[in-house]
From TrEMBL, chains A, B:
SUPFAM superfamilies given in the database record: CBS-domain pair, MgtE membrane domain-like, MgtE N-terminal domain-like
Compartment(s) of residence: Cell membrane; Membrane
Assembly and oligomerization: Homodimer.
Xref: PANTHER family: MAGNESIUM TRANSPORTER MGTE
Chief localisation class: membrane
Gene transcribed to yield this protein: mgtE
Family in the record: Belongs to the SLC41A transporter family.
Organism the protein comes from: Kingella kingae ATCC 23330
Regions that span the bilayer: 314-332, 338-356, 388-409, 415-441, 453-476
Function description: Acts as a magnesium transporter.
Occurrences of domain CBS (ranges): 232-290
Assigned keywords, A-Z: CBS domain, Cell membrane, Magnesium, Membrane, Metal-binding, Transmembrane, Transmembrane helix, Transport
UniProt GO MF annotations: magnesium ion transmembrane transporter activity; metal ion binding
PROSITE patterns: CBS
Protein's UniProt name: Magnesium transporter MgtE
Amino acid sequence: MEQNQPQFANDAERMAADIEQIHKLASQLLPFYSFITENNTLEEPLINAQLQMLIGVLHELHPADVALVLESLPPKERVLVWKLAIPEEDGDVLLEVSDAVRESLIESMDTQELVAAMEDMDADDLADLVEDLPDNVVQEVLKDLDEEERAQVQAALSYEDDQVGAIMNFDIVSIRADVTCEVVLRYLRRFDSLPDHTDKIFVVDDHDILQGVLPIRKLLVADPEDLVENIMAREVVKFRPSDDVVEAATAFERYDLITAPVVDENKKLIARLTVDEMVDVIREETEADMLNMAGLSDEEDLFAPVWDSVKNRWVWLAVNLVTAFVASRVIGAFEHSIAQIVALAALMPIVAGIGGNSGNQTITMIVRAMANAQISTAQAARLLKKEVGVALVNGLIWGSVMGLVSWLLYSSVGIGLVMVAAMTLNLLLAAVLGVLIPVAMEKLGCDPALGSSVLITAVTDSGGFLIFLGLATVFLL
Amino acid sequence: MEQNQPQFANDAERMAADIEQIHKLASQLLPFYSFITENNTLEEPLINAQLQMLIGVLHELHPADVALVLESLPPKERVLVWKLAIPEEDGDVLLEVSDAVRESLIESMDTQELVAAMEDMDADDLADLVEDLPDNVVQEVLKDLDEEERAQVQAALSYEDDQVGAIMNFDIVSIRADVTCEVVLRYLRRFDSLPDHTDKIFVVDDHDILQGVLPIRKLLVADPEDLVENIMAREVVKFRPSDDVVEAATAFERYDLITAPVVDENKKLIARLTVDEMVDVIREETEADMLNMAGLSDEEDLFAPVWDSVKNRWVWLAVNLVTAFVASRVIGAFEHSIAQIVALAALMPIVAGIGGNSGNQTITMIVRAMANAQISTAQAARLLKKEVGVALVNGLIWGSVMGLVSWLLYSSVGIGLVMVAAMTLNLLLAAVLGVLIPVAMEKLGCDPALGSSVLITAVTDSGGFLIFLGLATVFLL
């Protein structure tokens, strides 16, 4: 990715300018979409010049950039641009785009184009795409593979998306421990090219049992006469296909790994993991937490049709509606009190609101800490204590402020005192449940982030109304 | 990180067990903290056995694991464990822990320990720590460096934390273009060890101007007689020290990079970036978005003293209190209406709540898309249109459901109809501001995530009350 255009200070600016230009050209060309010929030309010279400009910009881009462009385009423009991309890179682009966008791209391709795009693809990448491809394409593609590759695709398909087996890569270079570095270097020279990200060579015995790894860094500085077994590392971070990908990614992050071996239950080397996949896992995981907290599924095409978005969001909206209804019934139970002191209606949302905000702060911290594996059950108790402390301090400070304001506003000491008490109690409730909800979710085997923001708000709303109106009814009426 | 204990299925489980054990031992040993001698022993044999066990577990751990353990410990236990860690690894651990925890660790060390920990540290790492170190330690450490290293530390310090210059690494291997691969291999063999993550060697001319890069993968398969200039890659993703780190990390992610050169304005090679730093940037950036949305600063020690946490959170709680007060005054303005129809008090939180939930869904999506650089201004208009569409559909569907429920509950068609209208309008408000708030924040140069959840909730609360009570006052009274 040379920055051929010296006017851009960096890659990000160049990319932004390219996206802007492609968007503009694509929307101008959209009316002429159906007139674009097989060899990507148009009759009208001026419009054709625009088309050729678009193709020019597009073909300069790395497949990952093309993927980014496609994700940022509305559906119709996306199909137009996709049609103009370099066919040989179609497979790489499909691997890079988000699931939602991938579906729409695959829908726009015919069988022949799809089969061509899958050619020369690695088994693990192929397995990623297989579930999105039409059956006849899958059969066609599998037919063209040799026995070993087919077995690899099957293996990759047999694991869940969140297991190491689903993203492991079969492109491995392995050597024996009893040879010299000289021999290794000669052996490597026989390859046309080494697999991407090769930072270490796997050392195995006659039965492919992993003995250690030979980092390229060590190989390059070693005496050519040195035996591999004398310089290889025997302590290796290794994974099993059934391991959780998020845990594997955390290990990559912690130990600064580039690649790592995947072994079966007998320590037989079967594949490897590479850091580029792990970076994707880290980003997706953290983003998924953020989206899940707000009650969004983690895959929504930004420009999805309205109806798709409605479906993506309706579950948590429905949950919210139910909880809001419960909160409403809590208030309904105190209608008699509100009828007597209307000020209560105006003050109650303050109690609920501050509880919701504070609860969200707590739950966000806990969800993040859980993702980083910083919380054991013993810890939870300690965190609870701390959060309760924070809530007590905040409740007394901010409760007093609002108590004073309410007192002045409604000239009633009673209302002021009820306000202090209700705010403090609701903040305590928020703190307790801000810790307990994610811990309970985890215990139940759910994702602690899932809708946690919606749930904590539900608790602090209903709880806040109940506490405030309840105290008011007991002490003010 | 060999999994020496075969009873653990994987690294994550082993780590969790280690953390649990260290926590237990540390809290048992805490009362004896002041009796631990210089050489880490205790008089009482039984307690000493526990101490030795703790030291044993601790010394088995990778510095990154020690960092994780320290982050998950409460302050007092943390200092105890820190005192027992391998002194030679102190520097590595300090680099790995979060800023908040790092401060507490440095506070517990004396000048001598700190100077020792900084020995043999790379310039870029040293620069990371300098701002947290006491002045006398910094002077001591700088004194021990040679001229070049001191210049590197100064260079790293002259950049902001969010600039490439602050995390670039000076440990580079460079060669000339006009030599053969054989010569390169011989040259590399003269090193004691190559820098971490070396996946490519930088090719420069006599004036250190970057000409290209020689990937190790290509070097290893090349004919020894090949000239570097014939096999090096000339198109290189490169960065400037003033570039934004998040943009650099995005480029690493997109182009699957392991290392990349950093050059000055004359393309002179000055340093490199490595993927391990970029992984940290990606995680921190996404997490910061999540924390910022909830109104938390991105650095809170999980076990910080209550008072520190209160300070970390009070700004957004105060903002929330002000906005809640505004919402309360909106209701106050309609006290007359509520006094006449008390049901309004019970129904109004439903309108506000669904708006808040839906607005949070929208704003979360937009903030995420902005972080991934998917949104240009032209896009914003299109997204707005889509979100308005989603809001209209949701408003009509869920508004009708709640309208029906309200009608049945209060036997009033009027209340039902006001409910439908108010919910639809508040969802539209949530959609419009869910897009506009982050776009405006970005335009103003603020982080779009910052407090966005608090802000959207403020709008949908006040707005929801105003719309619902306003409509009710006009049509029902």
